[in-house]
Each structure stands twice: as C-alpha cells, then as structure tokens.
Write a structure and sequence with these properties.
It is a single chain. This protein has about 220 residues and is an alpha/beta fold. The chain has helices at about 15-25, 30-40, 45-55, 60-75, 90-100, 115-125, 165-180, 180-190, 200-215; strands at about 1-5, 25-30, 80-85, 110-115, 125-130, 135-140, 160, 195. Strand 5 and strand 6 form a beta hairpin. Bound molecules: BIS(adenosine)-5'-pentaphosphate and magnesium ion. BIS(adenosine)-5'-pentaphosphate binds near residues 10, 52 and 136. Magnesium ion (MG) binds next to helix 1.
Length: about 220
C-alpha cells in the first residue's frame, strides 16, 4: 500500500505515520525528517534547505522530488510506504505519479487530516521529540509516562525543532494554504481522498484512519 498523509503543520502527520508503521507494516517517508537530517549532517543540500525551513517556506520541488526518488530506489519498503509531508505542491504530486508509474506502483489513498489553525499553533509550540529515537511528544497532549524518560527507548534527551515558534508556524500555515491545499481537490477528483477529523484525540484519529483505509468510513 502507498499512502499519502496530507495536512497542515501540526495536523498529526508524523504522529499517525509512526502509528501506521506499526498498524500496517508500512515504512514512513518524511521529507521533513530527510531535510532535517541533511541540515544536521551539514551537507550542501542541508545548508540550502535549512535557511528556507527556518523561514517556514517550502524547499524547491526538485530537491524534495530528488530525495523521494532516491529513497524509492533504495526499496526495502515492507508492505509499502506512508508519505508524510510529500507531496506539498501540484508539481510534486505529478512527479510522484511519474516516479511510482516508472516503478510499476500506484498511489492507493490520500488521507487528509483536518485541524483548525488555532489548534495547530498550540500543538506545534508544545511539541518535543526524543533525541535518540525520534518519538514525538507534547507538553499537554502526549507526555512521557515517566517524566523526562522516552517511552520508546528510555533516553533522557529531548529536542525541539528550530521552526517550532509562533512566527514561523504562521508562515508554514500560509505556505500550506497557498501551495498545498489545492492538492485536496486534485486528489478528490482522482477518487483517492479520504478526510478524517484530526481534532480528535490521537487514538481516535488512529482508528478513524484505519476505518477510512478499510473502506468502512
Ligand atoms: P515537516 O517536517 O513536514 O513539518 P510540517 O508539515 O510543518 O508538519 P509538522 O511535522 O510540524 O506536523 P505534523 O503534522 O507531523 O504533526 P505532529 O504529528 O508532529 O516540514 C518542515 C519543513 O520542511 C517545511 O516547512 C518545509 O520547509 C520543508 N519541507 C518538508 N517537506 C517538504 C516538501 N515536500 N516540499 C517542500 N518543502 C518541504 O504533531 C504535532 C504535535 O501535536 C505533537 O506534539 C503531537 O504529539 C501533537 N498531536 C498530534 N496529534 C494530536 C491530536 N490528535 N491531538 C492533540 N495533539 C496531537
Ligand atoms: Mg511531522
């Protein structure tokens, strides 16, 4: 199965992609994570992307399309992929169709996660992540079971993203509304769109996505 998770910053794409890896034996491909890894590694691509990400704008299409093409070529995808944060423009969506067709694959479904803008800002400002395994948390909505200790790997080190402040979040939201939202219609016309209420609690959203994918919602 090849699945796209579509939604604004903070909609819960990363959270639900991690759960889908477990629920469906799929592999998460997150362009945001790939770009942050390139920034941390100090590569040329990372230097170029880092400035753009800190402004909350979108990285040029050719860079992210190249990252996805490279990753698809590496294979090893188990039961398939969950694309988290890609595509984000119509040009990226068209490139994805092309990349999949060239490899004899097709996109099965696009899950749109609907969340109010005000809730998104609150979610993003409160987010932190395990520095070791990448498990995501939130100051109010998802705290570690033992304070200060990652549930998944036991690490005591956590990080916050450089683009997770209110000013940059507003720019990221603007980029979403201007450049990514048109994908909702694009995929609806192809009969691939499934919309879920992303305002519900994390476990409820997980179940709603499961029902949408199984065709019972
Ligand atoms: P990216 O890393 O993709 O960030 P984003 O789209 O802004 O989305 P986030 O990762 O912030 O949110 P999320 O939806 O994953 O939410 P999460 O699950 O963490 O991209 C970053 C940047 O990279 C972009 O701005 C751009 O510059 C560049 N980029 C990346 N891909 C690109 C592309 N294809 N083209 C061009 N540029 C690209 O949840 C958020 C918080 O809320 C967490 O703390 C979580 O615990 C909590 N939470 C989750 N679900 C719920 C819930 N249901 N209720 C309450 N809290 C919840
Ligand atoms: Mg994310």
């Amino acid at each position: 199965m090849i699945l796209v998770l579509l939604g604004p910053p903070g909609a819960g794409k990363g959270t639900q992609a991690n759960l889908l890896e477990t629920d469906r034996s799929l592999v998460k491909l997150s362009t945001g994570d790939m770009l942050r890894a390139a920034v941390a590694a100090g590569t040329e691509l990372g230097r170029k992307a880092g400035d753009i990400m800190e402004r909350g704008a979108l990285v040029p299409d050719d860079i992210v399309i190249g990252l996805i093409a490279e990753r698809l070529d590496r294979g090893g995808e188990g039961e398939g992929f969950i694309l988290d944060g890609f595509p984000r423009t119509i040009a990226q969506a068209e490139a994805l169709n092309r990349l999949l067709a060239e490899r004899g694959k097709t996109l099965d479904a696009v899950v749109e996660m609907q969340v109010d803008d005000d809730a998104l800002v609150k979610r993003i400002i409160g987010r932190f992540t395990c520095a070791n395994c990448g498990e995501g948390y939130h100051d109010d909505f998802k705290t570690p079971k033992v304070p200060g200790v990652c549930d998944r790997c036991g690490s005591r080190e956590f990080v916050r993203r450089r683009d997770d402040n209110e000013e940059v979040v507003r720019s990221r939201l603007e980029a979403y509304h201007a450049q990514t939202k048109p994908l909702i219609n694009y995929y609806a016309k192809q009969g691939k769109l499934k919309s879920v209420d992303g305002m519900a609690e994390i476990g409820q959203v997980r179940r709603a996505i499961g029902r949408a994918l199984d065709g019972s919602a």
